[in-house]
Amino acid sequence: MTELLDGKALALQIKDEIANEVRQMTQEGHRAPHLAAVIVGSDGASMTYVANKEKSSHEVGFTSSVYRMAESTTEKQLLETIDFLNNDPDIDGFIVQLPLPKHIDEQKVINAISAEKDVDGFTPVNIGRMVLGEDCFTPATPMGICTLLKRYGIETAGKHCVVIGRSNIVGTPVANLLSRKGFDCTVTMCHSKTQNLKELTLQADILVVAIGKPEFVTGDMVKPGAVVVDVGIHRVEDATKKNGYRVIGDVKHSEVDPKCSWVTPVPGGVGPLTIVSLLQNTLKAYKRR
Ligand code: NAP
Hints:
alpha/beta; binds NADP nicotinamide-adenine-dinucleotide phosphate; 11 strands; Rossmann fold; three-stranded parallel sheet; 2 domains
């Protein structure tokens, strides 16, 4: 029987835990943790993500601020804002919502974020610490995937985990984390140049899909009894929905779900845990200070 790795329910539970901790701290007279977000331009999906992060921050009792900047913002102006946030003693952590407009060098912007406030875990310092197994801010989506596997008691030691995708924000860090002591998976990382992808995915005890292609993974690519984690998020038009769209993943769930032992739904799987990881990292940044 297929069981759901229910990210929505788990996120609620962890948010409750964070909210209790924050309540206790504020009752003792401490200030609340403060998470800030910077968004440049008005991309619909990015605005939704930032709004969700702001809502979740309030739900757990954090202070939240959003810096909304015009699409025409120059790289220099953005770097000045980052410098301001790096030095603002009231802010514990902040994120810069990606993607940025094409005229801005994304890596240059990430590099400018102070590692101590980098609650998205994207800076070279935090990535380096993660690879070395040192204390760090772990990138939010991979951290969320690890939390899902851990809290649902999924057996990982010695399992063959196949990760499709090698992006800096999902594929590469999740492959690293799952191969480390504690998870102890044997990891195969696949990308667009991988040959015989299906041969590899059919060997996966745990299949993590972060390819960015709607419903790419079909039933014939999955071993019976596998654990499947679908990281993909895509909006597709759907006239039957009030908002005119529905959200699908990188996995064709109608075919894949019946074959799995455990599977993350889309929506309501990895997404809610990504936001929770950001809150956990912010709480950690607050406590460090
Ligand atoms: P990305 O930067 O576009 O990376 C996609 C990866 O897939 C690349 O490494 C690419 O290989 C690989 N790939 C492309 N075609 C392939 C093929 N035919 N066979 C094997 N590998 C292939 O995407 P991302 O930022 O990692 O995001 C992946 C998905 O997750 C997207 O749908 C995104 O919206 C979603 N996402 C969700 C969350 C969440 O919170 N749930 C967070 C972040 C992202 P190359 O490196 O060779 O190009």
